[in-house]
Amino acid sequence: MQSELSKALLFAYFEGTTTPIQTQRIQRWRQKPENRERFFACLEEWENQRLQYEADPETAFHQFRERIQQLESTPETPVLPLPTPSVRRAWLVAASLALLTLLAVWQRDRWLYRTYSTQYGELKTVGLPDGSRVTLNAHSSLRLSRWTFGQTSREVWLTGEAEFSVRHLPTHQRFIVRTPDELEVVVLGTEFVVSSRRQGSRIVLNSGKVAFRSLQGSSPAPVVMKPGDVATVKPGGQVQMQSHQSVERYRVWKEHRFLFDRTPLSQVLATLEEHFGETVQLADSELVHRQITGTFRAETAPVLLDLLTTLTRTQVVETDSGNVMIPLSPLNP
């Protein structure tokens, strides 16, 4: 990290608009005795540029008196007759109906659907009305019908990533997961993980049996999965199936762990953005092809970034275009 901070970054800190990484960096910097004088000097300058309004009672009084004189010299305007009570009631009813219509449209989803969601870096486990359990990964959401789920259907809409433990019902009612890229996963009772991110969707079957199909394809025929199968669905509906996989590696996120196996650094940083909302660019083209292998536990973006910079011998610097990762020394071919 850079030892000197720009005035613009400090001003953003005073305004409360810095990212968690920037805030942590500034707090470490201001704790050093040699930086305190500059910190408070910038704070004073920032406050002086945003002075509070000071009232001028004398000027206000004169303006008020002039306004009174203008009103006294203005000829009276004829008063229009007020609407009759029946007309006023009609206007009130029309306005009330219009307001209720707007509120109904705005609140429609809240009335019809229940939504569970997580913030960046947050995990959450929820119980569904049918007894099934869902664990949401970071920056994910699950929506289901507030009134009919478990009654006439068991259908949910997932954005992000979640692990499902679906309860089998005596009625053999199907449990359906839908994603924004038109993926449909149908199960009776099983444990599986569904991920729907920018790069595409993925289904990991831990136990039981599921069938899925992509409605984007020309012939969306169902694909049946067995335990240990991993299905990847690319944008456009192309399906890639892998069998006899270790499904535990796809569940490590439940313990705030990240598993990389010869993963390009660019993809690792994409994972960082998905989970924590922090964007870091690569300044060196050679860094794009750097591969990361290992398991890392991190509950915040700064912790994961510190691990990555130590491993790759890089540093993250603040630029006008955002956070950029640069090498500490020339890379070996």
TrEMBL record:
Listed name of the protein: DUF4974 domain-containing protein
Protein's organism: Larkinella humicola
Pfam families assigned to the protein according to its UniProt record, in alphabetical order: FecR, FecR_C
GO MF, one annotated term: sigma factor antagonist activity
Coiled coil: none
Protein FecR C-terminal domain ranges (all copies): 257-316
Limits of the FecR protein domain: 115-210
Superkingdom assignment: Bacteria
